[in-house]
Amino acid sequence: MRMAGRKIFISGDEAVAEAVRLVSPHVISAYPITPQTVAVERISDFVEDGSLQAEYIHVESEHSAMSAALGAAAVGARTFTATSSQGLLYMAEVLPYVSGARFPIVMMNANRALAVPWALLSDHRDSLSQLDSGWIQVYCEDAQETLDMIIQAYRVAEDERVMTPMMVNLDGFVLTHTYELVELPDQAALKSFLPDYSTDNKMDLDVPKSVCLAAMNHYMEYMMKQELDMRNVESIIEETDREYGDMFGRSYGGMIEQYMCDGADAVLVTLGSVTGTARVVVDSMRSEGYKVGLVKLRFMRPFPKAEIIEIGSKVKAIGVVDKDISVGYEGIVFTNVNSALSDLDRVPQRLNFIAGLGGRNVSKAHIRDMYMQLLEVAEGKEKEKIQFVNARCEYNG
Amino acid sequence: MDKNMVTNARELTNTEFFYGHKACAGCGGSLAVRLALKVLGQNSFVSLPPNCMSAVGFLFPQISFVTNAIIAPFAANAAVLSGIEAGAKALGLKDHHVVGFAGDGGTADIGIQALSGAIDRGDRIIYICYDNEAYMNTGIQQSGLTPYGARTTTSPAGKNLPGSIKMKKNMFEIVAAHGISYAATASIGYPEDYLKKVSKAAQCESTSYIHVMAPCCTGWGFPGERTIEIAKEAVDCGLWFLAEYENEKFTLNRKPSSFSPVKEYLMKQGRFRHLGDDDISIIERHRDHKWEKMLKNWDS
Amino acid sequence: MDRPKVVKYKEPERAEDYPVGATFKAGHLVQTNSGWRTFRPIIDQDKCIKCLRCFLVCPDGAIDKSGESLEIDYDFCKGCGVCAHECKVGAIRMVKEGADEDGR
């Protein structure tokens, strides 16, 4: 049954804090970094006013933030941390640690460009550099989805079939500092959606264990187990999304969302907040008769391979908007999409749009241009395969 | 005396909590871990960064810790301890100890930031630095606690250098400078004193720190049977000291009327055997300067 | 003697059967350390005054004090010789492995 909730006007960072208050972790350990700061400030307010009963550890670095979360999770506590950019990379050592230990820590990451050069605005190089860390990664389009995904992240991560940490990504400033009307789920109903966390995978005074151990001769088998379990995660994400939709009225399509993809000749694949802009462009181009659609890639790990193959089999051209670049190759999302598409007998035409680096604007006009190029390559025209969008100067492509 | 104090072998439980490990025969670090856990007991959560003790204790499926134990990221042993304590508190666990063991590098070099953070927060954890004066697990490289004149694989002794050219980082006073509620130095050469200090740390309501000298026969170059003798001699010759910091005061627990010869202590160890009298004089002068300050400023 | 014993470990046949997480039960010994020894310590019970010095300083905890007399767990004694070196009354001798108690 659909439970209507209270609506409040908040930013993406505040939506994270509200979600954390709703799921009520035992331990929060975090170190401030722009643009994640407002989230940890609000969480601190909630701990101070007693509306969130949690231990807040004022750690002295991101490396310690994740390590303290690891320690808390290691005794079976529900934990939360939050970071961004340089902070994420500073804790990078501990990410595979946590996923290998199979501790379901949930982390908010405010996507921000990596130094150098320094830039405080959003792109995805931070989180995409950690694709191989063994974490589940979801990317949100707006503050409402962020709040919903923090809640769902605990349900997915703590599922005994999953037991894997999850990173909830939202674009710095564009989402973290932008205000919108957000509906909060009813707390009582939430209790039945997200039960209290309990696990055997912990240090336990009654059943003592060694955790994060060394297994030189069994390393490969532990990793096989981790990979096999990760393969089950997709169905649990979808099941969680459906149930959340039934209870709270919002569901997001699971691994990906297809927008106007039926009958489309060309689709764009997007991650995060740029999806919102692309929707508007698709609406207007469809009204003009262009056969264009949009694929909102929600999860990067596990990767929605089957969904990408299915889309690839029905369109003529796919463009990937990468707010990142793997210097020396191409966009990271593009590489992943290409790898999935390679299973097709007939691979559609593909273009890679490197856009929004360091928070460079990606406007409706830019997206419209991407679609126009895709429609042209769909008709057999040649275009530069990897392009920088909205650069201030020319380059030798 | 408090009933919870353990000060000698008779009061020490027969039960072992760190057993069947693969440390070198005669390993001083393993004795430091073993004795501390015998004081703290089964309800301990133990955290160790990657070091000899974790390497020899967690070799799946050979698990030597009988208590709960975890390997922490190298730089973050204290942060993991803080997390364990916060988690245990939030879950309502009672009557447990959260104890960490890190070596000299894991404490004074890569782990010092996390340790400083934990002490600053006053988290209720016991942090034990077992000091064997070099990175032994990786093959005897110089650390911030390697003493002057010690030959390591990254501070070789040769025509131009006498081995390490720096004195030990002053971890005990660095820790005390935080205003920690309890800190102590100890040595496995004086095991009863060490037991007493672990007992005191166990009763501490906030962060406590023990810096225990634990010779490494392999890295220092002496026969394993002499581990306790060498540890004791380090104290007796004045190159190490037994002290406490509590209630904002330093106390020397042992004030030798005279020092045993430094040269004898040094010459028993392969890592110092190349040293000439000039270098030994430098070491003695540094020792005398240190003791002069301690005797002047600390209670004894 | 009250010391942990070696147990049999059966390796999982399938990856699915591995633990969730790099986690395993505490105090799980599958191997002894007795093969490390070149010399083994022997306590002369007549000379022993039960001061417990050896029990205290054994890095491996291989000396048990629960019985009438001190007992060495030869499964886990590595033969380091700390006990013999530290014994104040000379009640512990190190004897070459393979030789009898008199070292022959």
The dominant shape of chain B is globular
Low-confidence regions of chain A: none
Oligomer: heterotrimer
Number of DSSP strand runs of chain B: 8
Mean pLDDT of chain B, to the nearest integer, reads: 97
| Biggest β-sheet strands, sense, barrel of chain A | 7 strands, mixed
**Beta-strand residue percentage of chain A:** 15-25%
Q: What pattern of helices and strands is seen along the backbone of chain A?
A: EHEHEHEHHEHEHEEHEHHEEHEEHEHEHE
Helix segment count of chain A? 14
CATH architecture of the largest domain in chain A: 3-Layer(aba) Sandwich
Mean pLDDT of chain A: 97
* Side-by-side strand order of the widest sheet of chain A: 3-2-4-5-7-6-13
- CATH fold node name of the domain at 28-143 and 169-255 in chain B: Rossmann fold
The percent of residues in helical segments of chain B reads 25-40%
What does this structure look like?
The complex is a heterotrimer of chains A (397), B (300) and C (104). Chain A has 397 residues and is of the alpha/beta class. Chain A has helices at 12-23, 37-49, 62-74, 85-90, 94-101, 125-128, 143-158, 187-193, 219-231, 233-248, 274-287, 305-312, 332-341, 364-378; strands spanning 6-11, 27-30, 55-58, 79-83, 106-111, 136-139, 166-171, 179-184, 209-211, 256-259, 266-270, 292-297, 299-301, 317-322, 349-354, 386-388. Chain A folds into two domains: 6-248, 3-Layer(aba) Sandwich (Rossmann fold), CATH 3.40.50.970; 256-388, Rossmann fold, CATH 3.40.50. Chain A has 14 helices and 16 strands. Chain A is globular, with a radius of gyration of 21 Å. The model of chain A has no long low-confidence stretch (mean pLDDT 97). With 300 residues, chain B is α/β, with parallel strands linked by helices. Helix content of chain B is 36%, strand content 14%. Chain B contains eleven helices and eight strands. An eight-stranded mixed β-sheet of chain B has the order 2-1-3-4-6-5-7-8, sandwiched between helices. The longest helix of chain B is centred in the C-terminal third of the chain and has 21 residues, at 277-297. Chain C has 104 residues and is mainly beta. Chain C is built from two helices and five strands. Chain C has a two-stranded antiparallel ribbon. Chain C has a two-stranded antiparallel ribbon with strand order 3-4. Chain A binds chain B through residues 26-27, 29, 54-55, 57-61, 63-65, 67-77, 79, 93-94, 97, 203-205, 208-218, and chain B through 42-43, 45, 47, 54-55, 57-61, 63, 65-73, 75-76, 78-91, 93, 96, 113-114, 116-117, 120-121, 123. Strand 9 (209-211) of chain A pairs parallel with strand 2 (68-71) of chain B.
